């Protein structure tokens, strides 16, 4: 989260410097990881306010453009009711629903209205997708996100023994946004306003990252096989919802995969890493009563992180949104959702353990199967 917060402070400072000290408004597009939205909703940090488009739908895109247009008019008229939008924050894909925003349209809107587009690619990871350089509908290269944030704590490290993040300013085209952000970033770094890691953390992170590409390559393959195994449970009615950006088991999933594929790296990285759909997936067991039974009998590590060398499973919504379950449900995040971060275990080992837990659920009198 240090990268997200640093990106916000950077944009806030650059915007204020370019607009006579005025406050900028922020947009969050899509349902993000808990802390991203909570940080931007804190009035002491973000007095300019935030608008949340939690569904990340086509309708949300249309409403977002209306907001961007109105915010410019209001700012020109010195309206006291709305600050001009300075930034759009999004995840690709989102956590935990793995929903993929239309990055080409978001980038086009951000450029049209002079807004900074910030993306967090932690879930997909930058070896799988390229959000800095996109292709438009004509296949032409175009400017992607303005700021790319990644958690290096997750799959880049893999070991779960060090924390860190990265922030990249996109210099694909030397836009006025880039020049302003780069100037402000240089000033902040000279004054130690951007947190810097300890030397020991850097050494550990560098050592762990040497296996990043091989780790990502293996996890991509295992996660895809595991997701396809879960499709069989969805087809039997054991699962009511299944989220993974590489799947095509229903209309929504096919559309989501198509969106992911627009930014999928097409050529191997370093000649060996084949781009895929990442380590993370989620599902909802059809019978709510059975979710806790399944979770308790699943013989895998339980915990809230992701991208580790070992598979991690967690009841995500209960951990992240326990005090706002109804609010989360309104955005499709059900209280019984189970999130899985696939690790380096053999696929056969994972399938066997999931199958044992599913066998208990499927044998339960509390669940009916289609």
Succession of helices and strands: HEHEHEHEEEEEHHHEHEHEEHHEH
Distance between the termini: 42 Å
Strand order within the widest sheet? 2-1-3-4-7-8
Overall number of strands = 13
Describe the largest sheet: 6 strands, mixed
Describe this structure in words.
With 370 residues, the chain is α/β, with parallel strands linked by helices. It has twelve helices and 13 strands. Helix content is 41%, strand content 15%. Helix 1 (2-18) packs across helix 5 (176-190) and helix 3 (58-76) packs parallel to helix 4. It is globular. Residues 366-370 have low confidence and may be disordered.
Question: Which helices and strands, and how do they pair?
Answer:
Blueprint: H1 2-18, E1 25-29, H2 34-40, E2 50-53, H3 58-76, E3 85-91, H4 103-113, E4 116-120, E5 133-135, E6 141-143, E7 147-151, E8 165-169, H5 176-190, H6 199-209, H7 212-235, E9 239-243, H8 251-261, E10 280-285, H9 288-297, E11 301-302, E12 312-314, H10 316-320, H11 325-329, E13 338-341, H12 347-362
Parallel strand pairs: 1-2, 1-3, 3-4, 4-7, 11-12
Antiparallel strand pairs: 5-6, 7-8, 9-10, 10-13, 12-13
Helix pairs in contact: 1-5, 3-4, 9-12
């Amino acid at each position: 989260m240090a990268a997200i917060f640093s990106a916000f402070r950077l944009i806030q400072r650059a915007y204020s410097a370019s607009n006579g000290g005025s406050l900028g408004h922020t947009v969050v597009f899509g349902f993000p990881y808990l802390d991203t939205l909570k940080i931007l909703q804190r009035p002491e940090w973000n007095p300019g306010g935030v608008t949340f488009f939690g569904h990340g739908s086509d309708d949300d895109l249309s409403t977002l453009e209306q907001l961007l247009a109105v915010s410019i008019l209001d700012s020109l008229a010195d309206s006291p009711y709305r600050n001009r939008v300075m930034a759009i924050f999004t995840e690709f894909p989102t956590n935990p629903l793995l929903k993929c925003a239309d990055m080409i349209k978001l980038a086009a809107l951000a450029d049209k209205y002079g807004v900074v587009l910030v993306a967090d690619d932690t879930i997909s990871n930058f070896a799988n997708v390229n959000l800095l350089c996109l292709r438009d509908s004509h296949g032409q290269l175009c400017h992607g996100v303005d700021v790319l944030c990644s958690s290096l704590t997750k799959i880049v490290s893999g070991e779960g023994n060090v924390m860190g993040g990265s922030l990249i300013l996109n210099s694909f085209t030397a836009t006025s946004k880039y020049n302003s952000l780069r100037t402000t970033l240089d000033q902040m770094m000279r004054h130690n306003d951007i947190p810097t890691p300890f030397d020991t953390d850097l050494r550990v992170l560098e050592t762990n990252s040497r296996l990043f590409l091989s780790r990502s390559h293996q996890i991509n393959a295992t996660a895809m096989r595991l997701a396809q195994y879960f499709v069989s449970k969805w087809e039997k009615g054991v699962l009511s919802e299944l989220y993974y950006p590489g799947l095509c088991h229903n209309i929504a999933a096919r559309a989501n995969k198509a969106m992911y594929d627009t930014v999928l790296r097409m050529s191997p990285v370093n000649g060996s890493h084949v781009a895929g759909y990442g380590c993370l997936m989620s599902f909802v067991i059809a019978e709510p009563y059975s979710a806790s039974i399944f979770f308790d009998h699943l013989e895998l590590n339980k915990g809230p992180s992701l991208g580790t060398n070992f598979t991690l499973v967690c009841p995500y919504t209960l951990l992240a949104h326990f005090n706002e379950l109804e609010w989360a449900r309104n955005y499709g995040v059900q209280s019984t959702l189970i999130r899985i971060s696939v690790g380096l275990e053999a696929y056969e080992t994972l399938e066997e353990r999931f199958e044992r837990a599913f066998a208990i659920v499927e044998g339960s009198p509390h669940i009916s199967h289609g």
